[in-house]
Specification:
About 60% of the residues lie in helices and about 20% in strands. The protein is α+β, with helices and mostly antiparallel strands. The protein has a five-stranded antiparallel sheet. β11 (about 450-455) and β12 form a beta hairpin. α1 (about 5-60) packs across α2. The longest helix has about 60 residues, at about 5-60. The two termini are about 30 Å apart.
Length: about 475
């Protein structure tokens, strides 16, 4: 959907919601006021009926006719029916559970729920619907000879519901007409406002095709004019940056290939020479010092070469669509690092949920071997490293947490760069080449996983890796 259409639709939605809410509140307020007015009228009618008939009952009792009160109730009701009640109202006199008087054709009053809720001295009411008509029924009661005497008035209030329906009908018509008018005005205005942005859109298409030298011409001095000016500046910066990136990428790949090629020959010579020197009869101490140095350096260069080749391979690798058991990945990484952890007396605590995640098992194991090995290098002897895998908010989250030396913010930003080592002396002592985290970042990017680092100098580091579970995994099924 084009932006100007979004503006039109957005404006109409906001206006419709605003006007609809105001209309609803006004109509509802009028309806409630009408109901309140009718309620007061119905209560007044009920009080008049009750007061008038109670007066007649008391007169009858004072005159000595207490036993004939029940017989006289229908005549009392008939006496006041025409003088008190309105045309749209009926009233009933119920003694005990029997209707002794009614102004409508149905002599029996059957709304027992209203009668059950009645209490002496209070007025109770209920809004009811019968045959498509709406009523308000009001009840009050007294007693004669310990039997309840109910006075019920039933008022037809359908007129206020008809008024409500009429107001809603006219409001809908007005809203429809207003929506059409506002749609036309909003579309016209949005077209005029968005036209300069269309020029920017076309230019972005040209730039995306590689025409970085093109610039947009907009002469207005408003925010869009400022945007166009900034866009032109950005285009120039992008053009320059792309050229720099092309050159940098070429240099980096060339460096890696050249470096790998150059180290293979001396690496083979050093390892072969060291192995030969081990069998020659020399001064034992000096011979072993020299040989161990040559041999260890040769192995380090060989390891660096292999890692560089792995990195180049991973960057050119296509996603295979394979999946792996997250628990099995974690367990294998733990078992691979267990000897080196034990050698340093580090307690490695692990716990994994079952789940299927995207990725080749061997590559994912490589990721966590690197993370665990970095945690080991950063940790002191007799410390603890926690390695866990849990399903959190629909994702599978691995965490590697240590209490080691930690890193600065700058170090965490650069830790995935090739050959970067936060602590070079410690890394070289431990046999690191500064390429492991580059491999980790490349593998995780390959399978769409996220890496987050939380580290503080002297307090340790927590590496968090989040995977979207593969289709058919536990998290998918739970969803």
């Amino acid at each position: 959907m084009k932006f100007r259409y979004k503006i039109v639709v957005g404006n109409l939605i906001l206006i419709s919601i605003g006007l609809g809410l105001i209309g609803y509140l006004m109509i509802r307020k009028n309806f409630n006021l009408a109901r309140e007015s009718i309620f007061q009228t119905a209560v007044t009618e009920n009080n008049l009926v009750k007061s008038s008939i109670e007066y007649e009952v008391m007169q009858k009792i004072f005159a000595g006719g207490e036993n004939s009160v029940l017989i006289s109730l229908p005549s009392f009701g008939s006496k006041f029916a025409n003088s008190i009640m309105m045309e749209d109202s009926d009233f009933y006199i119920i003694y005990g559970k029997s209707t002794v008087f009614s102004t409508d054709d149905n002599m029996s009053y059957n709304n027992e729920a209203l009668l059950e809720n009645a209490t002496k001295g209070d007025v109770k009411y209920m809004w009811t619907e019968d045959g498509g008509k709406h009523y308000i029924e009001v009840v009050s009661f007294d007693g004669i000879k310990e039997m309840p005497l109910y006075f019920v008035t039933r008022k037809d209030v359908s007129s206020i519901y008809e008024m409500l329906d009429t107001q809603i009908k006219y409001f809908r018509i007005a809203m429809a007409a207003l929506t059409i008018i506002l749609s036309i005005l909003s579309y016209s205005l949005s077209y005029l406002l968005i036209r300069p942005l269309e020029k920017l859109r076309k230019l972005t298409t040209h730039i995306s095709e590689g025409n970085y030298h093109e610039r947009v011409v907009i002469k207005s001095h408003d925010e869009i004019g400022n945007l166009a000016q900034n866009f032109n500046m950005m285009s120039g910066a992008v053009e320059k940056r792309v050229e720099e990136l092309d050159e940098m990428v070429h240099k980096r790949e060339q460096f890696i290939m050249d470096f790998t090629h150059e180290i293979k020959t001396p690496m083979t010579s050093i390892i072969g020479y060291a192995d030969t020197m081990r069998s020659v009869e020399l001064d034992r101490e000096n011979r072993l010092i020299a040989l161990n140095y040559i041999f260890s350096e040769g192995k380090r260069l060989e390891n660096m070469s292999h890692k560089l080749l792995d990195l180049l391979y991973l960057r050119q690798k296509e996603v295979s669509g394979e999946v792996a058991d997250a628990e099995a990945v974690g367990r294998e990484a733990v078992e691979s690092l267990r000897p080196s952890m034990d050698k340093k007396s580090i307690n490695l605590v692990s716990d994994f949920d079952k789940e299927i995640i995207p990725g080749e098992k061997e590559l994912l194991v490589t990721v966590f071997i690197n993370l665990l090995d970095n945690a080991r290098k950063a940790s002191e002897e007799n410390s603890t490293i926690i390695f866990s895998g849990k399903i959190i908010d629909g994702k599978y989250v691995f965490k590697v947490a240590d209490n080691g030396i930690g890193m600065t913010v700058e170090q965490t930003k650069r830790m995935c760069d090739e050959f970067y080592m936060a602590d070079k002396s410690r890394s070289r002592k431990e046999g690191g080449a500064g390429i492991g985290m580059s491999i980790v970042a490349t593998i995780l990017k390959l399978y769409g996983a996220d890496l987050e680092v939380d580290s503080e100098i002297g307090k340790g580091t927590t590496m968090t890796v989040s995977f979207n579970p593969a289709e058919g995994g536990v998290a998918d099924n739970e969803g």
